[in-house]
Amino acid sequence: MQKNLELKDQTQVIIREMTAEDLDSSLAFFASLSEADRTYLRRDVTKREVVERRIAECGPGVATRLVAIVDGRIVADGTLELSGEDWKEHVGELRLIVAGPYRRQGLGALMAREL
Asked: 3, 52, 53, 78: which could form a disulfide with 66 (CB 3.0–4.6 Å)?
């Protein structure tokens, strides 16, 4: 799945599933976020092994991870994590983070819709 979309300010963005090839770009994205933004993240995604684990956890019935790319750089990360427990397999948690310059442009809503 890959979608080419346009933000409110006419910035062209690609939204697609995260792959193992996104490891370094993902690390760079999370490192670029302010410490205040990273406070709300569940994991320390500035560590390579943590991002490797996130990518490995992707798959049907577990987690769907999307990235938004502008000019070859990740500018947003979105995840839909399913509970994994039989009795609440229909319950999931949606997590999104968008780089500061791309906020208030509709990117979070686009990512949520795709997830």
From this structure: 78
